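Example record

Each entry pairs one chain with its bound ligand, magnesium ion.
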Amino acid sequence: MPVVGTSGASDTRNNSVSVSESSRRYKIVGSRFLDKVTEGEILQDIALRFQDGRRLIIPIGLPQAGKSMFIASLIAYAFKREEKQDNSCNFMHVVSREESGIKSITDALDIKSLLPSTRPSEITIIDIDMKSRYRKRPIKITLIDLSGEDIKTMIAGNQTNDQTIVKIERILEACIARKAIFAMLTPVDEHMTEVGQVSYFDEEEDSEMKAFIDKVRNNQPRLYDFTKFLIVVTKWDKLPRSIDSSKYLKLHRNQLYNEYSSNSKSYSLIPYSVGNVVGNTIINIVLRSPKNFWYTLYRWCTGKHVLPWWKRIF
Ligand SMILES: Nc1nc2c(ncn2[C@@H]2O[C@H](COP(=O)(O)OP(=O)(O)OP(=O)(O)O)[C@@H](O)[C@H]2O)c(=O)[nH]1
Ligand SMILES: [Mg+2]
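Structure tokens for the complex follow.
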């Protein structure tokens, strides 16, 4: 059974850790290449995580959609506690910080650097547990980062012999074993000057993301029914003016909006920003979006708010 570090909120940088037992349990942790592992190895590792009650969160998006930075921002919120006031939850590494894939992310964020583009066939698997200070039950999460190039190829569906793509499809199919979350990341057009003016970029994003949903629905109807689709509009800070996220979706991702509004049971929507990005630097890492995400996730998984009612009132 994976055990986790249990140190308190004041010691989060070192709360890792070292649980060699769980490192042995999960063979594939941190960053690896799918062409270097067999289908059996990766699926067994995923199955172990399901057995441990882990919930998989898989960002789905085209190259440069913001998948890796979305994960980095969630990690930043979880493990950069000194930069935030909120101490209502504890986050714990499940394997040592060094081998978990978290270290390279937090090291990059320490120098406010963006992460490099994820290479084709690369996969990063990160296991984190989250516990409210006011609740007994922790939630166990596994984040899986994939390459946008691979996701694009998978959506196009014409590379049936590509073993990397086959493995990704198998990983997604395996999510039938335990309710997973496919986070559909679709970025604001960086060149947008006016809200309401739909660009070619918007149209392409809309149809590619919709094609992914259709692919799951048509090829794996049970998986479609079982999976939660969370639409995440990334690079929200790039909007020229503020707008309600569902209005944005209706205007700029109309096909996704129709999905979202026709089936509120399976779909949710959040706007997301990792902070102000200038060139290769994140000028200031914003923690509002990841906090919102983690709180929402905790509620989905446990049916309870991170905070007790008396904390929310006062
Ligand atoms: N302004 C702004 N830019 C962002 C944000 N998130 C990501 N970016 C920019 O988008 C680029 C791509 O982000 P990544 O997270 O690497 O994208 P990805 O989806 O992982 O891309 P691949 O690895 O190629 O599939 C980053 O280098 C940033 O320049 C955000 O919240 N705001
Ligand atoms: Mg990436």
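The longest strand covers residues 122-132.
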